[in-house]
Amino acid sequence: MAFKIIASQCTQCGACEFECPSGAIKFKGESYVVEPQKCTECQGEFDTQQCASVCPVPKTCVPA
User: Fold this and answer.
1) For 3-63, CATH number?
2) How confident is the model at residue 11 (pLDDT cuts 50, 70, 90)?
3) CA–CA gap between residue 46 and residue 32 (Å, rounded)
4) Domain ranges within the chain, ordered by starting residue
5) What is the mean pLDDT of residues 17-45?
6) Could you say which DSSP state residue 52 is in?
7) Which long-range contacts (CB under 8 A, 24 or more apart) does 10-16 make?
8) Alpha carbon distance 34, 45 (integer Å)
9) pLDDT exceeds 90 at position 30
10) Can you give the pTM of this predicted structure?
11) What is the spatial distance between Cα 8 and Cα 23, in angstroms, rounded to a whole number?
12) Is 7's pLDDT higher than 90?
């Protein structure tokens, strides 16, 4: 499973892109998106998903 970003809640701050250890987050169109084939949910690297932990808007980076 991968995470996704709720586009309507995304503030386009970019914090998640720089924190993603697998490089799965990119800016496309008007918001950030998670490329599901690259997302590892930070397993084996962190105890929590980095995108969700740095996002300033609660419940914007969520499991897909």
Assistant:
1) 3.30.70.20
2) very high
3) 21
4) 3-63
5) 95
6) H
7) 10/57, 10/60, 11/56, 11/57, 13/56, 15/54, 15/55, 15/56, 16/50, 16/51, 16/54, 16/55, 16/61
8) 18
9) no
10) 0.89
11) 22
12) yes
Structural Rg of the chain based on CA atoms: 10
Look up residue 18 and give its two tokens: 């720089």
- Reading the block at residue 58, the tokens are 């609660």
pLDDT at 49: 96
Using DSSP, state whether 8 is helix, strand or coil.
coil
- List CB contacts of 47: < 8 A, sequence separation 6 or more: none
Tokens of 20: 């993603």
Q: Per the structure block, which two tokens stand in for 4?
A: 């996704």
Q: Which has the closest alpha carbon to 38: 60, 58, 7, 64?
A: 64
